[in-house]
């Protein structure tokens, strides 16, 4: 399970597995949705910890970066594009525990909430 978090990206199947493991207390990470409020309210992955819209990236990025330096952070969005950009910025600035959810919610087959 832990080896999944050692990569720079995660598939929907892997995300579903580690969300279940997190519920069981076997692994710890933060799942951040970077879509906009309207998209999030239409449906989001069950287990998302916080919503941080990319449109307000400049307002929240530094604080999230600083507060999660010692944590694994998985970014997700609709298709993996925006979350990939956010993950890349964090990685380029030295946060080596970030992952991009490849395919985003469009490829996710696990539980979704509205």
UniProtKB/TrEMBL annotation:
<dbReference type="InterPro" id="IPR001763">
    <property type="entry name" value="Rhodanese-like_dom"/>
</dbReference>
<dbReference type="InterPro" id="IPR036873">
    <property type="entry name" value="Rhodanese-like_dom_sf"/>
</dbReference>
<dbReference type="Pfam" id="PF00581">
    <property type="entry name" value="Rhodanese"/>
</dbReference>
<feature type="domain" description="Rhodanese">
    <location>
        <begin position="25"/>
        <end position="113"/>
    </location>
</feature>
<dbReference type="GO" id="GO:0016740">
    <property type="term" value="F:transferase activity"/>
</dbReference>
<protein>
    <submittedName>
        <fullName>Sulfurtransferase</fullName>
    </submittedName>
</protein>
<keyword id="KW-0808">Transferase</keyword>
<dbReference type="InterPro" id="IPR050229">
    <property type="entry name" value="GlpE_sulfurtransferase"/>
</dbReference>
């Amino acid at each position: 399970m832990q080896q999944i978090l050692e990569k720079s990206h995660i598939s929907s199947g892997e995300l579903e597995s580690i969300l279940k493991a997190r519920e069981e207390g076997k692994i710890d990470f933060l799942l951040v949705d970077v879509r906009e409020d309207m998209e999030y309210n239409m449906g989001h992955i069950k287990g998302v910890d916080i919503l941080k819209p990319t449109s307000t990236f400049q307002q929240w990025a530094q604080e999230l970066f600083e507060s999660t330096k010692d944590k694994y952070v998985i970014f997700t969005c609709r298709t993996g594009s925006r979350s990939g950009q956010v993950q890349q910025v964090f990685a380029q600035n030295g946060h080596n525990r970030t992952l991009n959810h490849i395919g985003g919610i469009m490829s996710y087959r696990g539980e979704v909430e509205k």
